[in-house]
Structure formats: structure tokens, C-alpha cells
Amino acid sequence: MIQVGDKLPAGTLNEFIEVEGNGCSLGPNSFDIAKETAGKKIAVFALPGAYTPTCSAKHVPGYVQQADALKAAGIDEIWCVSVNDAFVMGAWGRDQKTGGKVRMMADGSAAFTQATGLTLDLTARGMGLRSNRYSMLVVDGVVKTLNVEGPGKFEVSDADTMLAQAKAALA
């Protein structure tokens, strides 16, 4: 499992782009993780799935509500990562009103999730291999804090915890 001090694994994540520009076309676009994190401070939070109850009612809304405070604390970007395709993540982002606040990054084949070692096997529940619920503060591609939730929990990966960690680490 990835640890504090480790570099994020190489690979790509996908994001559904609503408006063409900045070298991005409409629809799903692939982003190289190393390039996207270089020189940036990123709050990453991951969850088991789009439109699932805790994820939709608490996890994403918390980061949307705290986006300005996180940016004021020194965070450049906020990423939500889930093992869903870019179309689903884009639609969920629209529903959650994440535009300009949280990048909805799709890990459709779970390659990033597997590379971090933060997988959650929900095959018995009909959902297959998913991401565990966690958050991490990433600075220039290196993990500075890591908060992995216990099974069925939502206690340490929330936006308030990340905000406190960002204030402490980036002060």
C-alpha cells in the first residue's frame, strides 16, 4: 500500500471535459498523473463509487463546500478519484455541482487504485473491484498525508480533516 513519502504511481486518470479549451477536447480526456501533479499541491480523495449514498451525501459535498478554504490553505487542486468511467464521473460532477471546485477523475479500469494498493473488493455486492475510501495530500507528486478509512467508515477522509492537514503541512 502507498505510504506517506511515496511518489504517486505513474499512469493516467480520465476527466470528462464540458467545455473545449486549454488543449482539452469535449468529452473524456486522459491526464498523466506525474505531469498533473508536478509542482502542485493537490487534495486527493477517493471513494468506492459515484452516486453511492455516503459518497453523494457527505464525501463530495464536503469537498465542494470546503473548496475555497482548501485553496486559501494552499491547495492548488482537489481531485475526486473513483473506479468509474469518465462519463459517469462527469455526470456525477454535474449533479454535485463540482465545476471549478473538484476535478472528477475517473479510474475506469482501477489501474491507479491497484497501483496504490488501496483497493476494495465489492464483488460480493455486485460492484467488483473498487477504491477504498481515503484522502491524501499530495505535494509535487509525493504523498504528504494519507487517511485510509476502515470498512464502512467515514471518519478521516473528509474535507475538514484534509483542511486541518493542509493548514498544518503547507503553513
UniProtKB/TrEMBL annotation:
**Top class in the EC scheme:** oxidoreductase
Biological processes annotated in GO? cell redox homeostasis; cellular response to oxidative stress; hydrogen peroxide catabolic process
Recorded hits in Pfam families, A to Z, give:
Redoxin (PF08534)
**InterPro entries, from UniProt?**
PRX5-like (IPR037944), Redoxin (IPR013740), Thioredoxin-like_sf (IPR036249), Thioredoxin_domain (IPR013766)
What are the protein's UniProt keywords?
Antioxidant, Oxidoreductase, Peroxidase, Redox-active center
Q: Which reaction does it catalyse?
A: a hydroperoxide + 2 glutathione = an alcohol + glutathione disulfide + H2O
Active-site residues are: 55
Q: Which GO terms describe its cellular component?
A: cytoplasm
KW Oxidoreductase (keyword) present: yes
The EC number(s) attached to this protein equal: 1.11.1.27
Give yes or no: UniProt keyword Oxidoreductase: yes
Which Gene Ontology MF annotations are present? thioredoxin peroxidase activity
Tell me the ranges covered by the Thioredoxin domain, including all copies: 2-171
Identify its protein family: Belongs to the peroxiredoxin family. Prx5 subfamily.
The function of this protein is: Thiol-specific peroxidase that catalyzes the reduction of hydrogen peroxide and organic hydroperoxides to water and alcohols, respectively. Plays a role in cell protection against oxidative stress by detoxifying peroxides.
Q: What is this protein called?
A: Glutathione-dependent peroxiredoxin
Taxonomic lineage is: Bacteria, Pseudomonadati, Pseudomonadota, Betaproteobacteria, Burkholderiales
